[in-house]
Amino acid sequence: MAQAPNPTVVLVHGAWADASSWRAVIARLMRARLNVVAVQNPTTSLADDVAATRRTLQAIDGPVVLVGHSWGGTVITEAGNDPKVCALVYVAAFAPDAGESTGDQVGQHPPPPGLGGVVPFGDGFLKMGEASWIANVAQDLSEEEARTLAVVQTPLALTTFNDRIGHPAWRDRPNWYVVSSQDRAVSVDLQRALATRLQARTTELLASHMSLLSMPDAVAEVIAQAVAAVSSQDA
Question: What beta strand segments (E) does 42-102 contain?
Answer without folding.
Answer: 64-69, 85-91
